[in-house]
Amino acid sequence: MGRLFGTDGVRGVANLELSPLLAYRLGRATGALVTGWGDGEAGLGRSPVAGSAARDERPQRPFVLVATDTRVSSGMLEAAVTAGLTSAGADVVRLGVLPTPALSWLVPHAGAAAGVMISASHNPVEDNGIKIVGADGYKLPDRIEALLERTVDEMDGQDRLPRPVGLSVGRVRYEPHWQEAYLSHLIDLVGTTFEGWRVVVDCANGAAHRLAPELLRRLGADVVAINTGDSGEDINVGCGSTHPQRAADVVRQSGARVGLTFDGDADRCIAIDEQGQVVDGDQILAICALERLRHGTLPGRAVAVTVYSNGGLREVLRKAGGDVVVTPPGDRHVLEAMLRQGLVLGGEQSGHVIFLEHARTGDGLLTGLMLLAAMRRSGWPLSHLAAQMPRYPQVLLNARVAGKESLLEQPEVRQVIESAERALGESGRILVRPSGTEPVVRVMVEGPDRQRVERLAREVVEVLERASRTMAQRSEGVVTGQVEA
After folding, report:
1. Residue of 121, 241, 350, 468 with catalytic role
2. Which residue would you say has higher pLDDT here, 174 or 9?
3. Domains (ranges, CATH) in the chain?
């Protein structure tokens, strides 16, 4: 099977790579672990909270929270995962459509043994994913993911996992009231209201389609909500944090003070200032970190960021007496660095920001609230706060390719990357890395000359895509239109 888990769970085209059979097997493997199968060292962990026993007086047994985004395929995969979990003897509590960070927060607070999120985040509508978190609400460590993968692989031969019968089969409940607990949690955290503020909210037709507008209305904002559909047919399509231009237009047209855009599972937030300019995750980190530095509330006087973060973030923090800790791409690496070094703030340019004092992962709704609260406390408009961070010209392009890892070893690819590095010199940088969640290679070029940066990025992408086509032809035994002997 190869490595099943990527940097953010299991992803693929729903009903193809991510089939109902695979979802069922993942559910069975997870259910077996939470009900005590294995060597005792491998289990996902049980919460000390009584959970189901406190509600129905049956003997306590582990239960797993399951939530989805709005994708058309999410119901199919939720049913398959639920069947797998209950077939191994775990109860399932269905939460309905809910942001990924809400699930992470709810798992320990509800006393669940684990949580399963059906979502492909910012990916296209045809994709979907399965994310599993442990009883503590954090993503699974590598050793648990490896165990689950081995267990799923073994099901191709003989399924040796427990098969309870009768009253021992897992039960399924639907408890949407936990969504209210999450909203109340966020409202308690913000410590202020936004009376008199007009706020545009772009929900990407995804998991935040109901909660985000409701949250801000309860905090007094005049909310202009767009892309609030729940059909799943247009999640992330031309909207949300990956396409903030529509929200920017609405901010300008409506005279809003600020705009907030989320992705399909609402773990990201990209903001729009009152002038309609995009404020990305690096700028949000800068605003929040600088405020904490001024008040002495930033442990380690540093934030964790990835190699893709704009160089202007490090510059502004160093001038203020702070610094950045640089990690490989992916929120998993950011979180690991934060836990290792005792940091409370970190994130990515994409708007995936972690406030570790309040959340176990990036939370788009929380990020939006923390940004609005910083605006409220400062008295400055968002355009002014965002301008504190200089922005180095930076271009990030995706090359859609096959064979991501082997492609980077091709001579023509290495040559174009080395040529770009020479052209940039010490005044810039280039990063070429395979995505951990999509079939693309990401090309980031940063430097003082925007035209040069854009040209170099396009050249690298063109070579990557051409080399990918050549490799595909060779793998099919075709070279320049002729079959190889």
Report:
1. 121
2. 174
3. 10-176 (3.40.120.10), 181-386 (3.40.120.10), 394-479 (3.30.310.50)
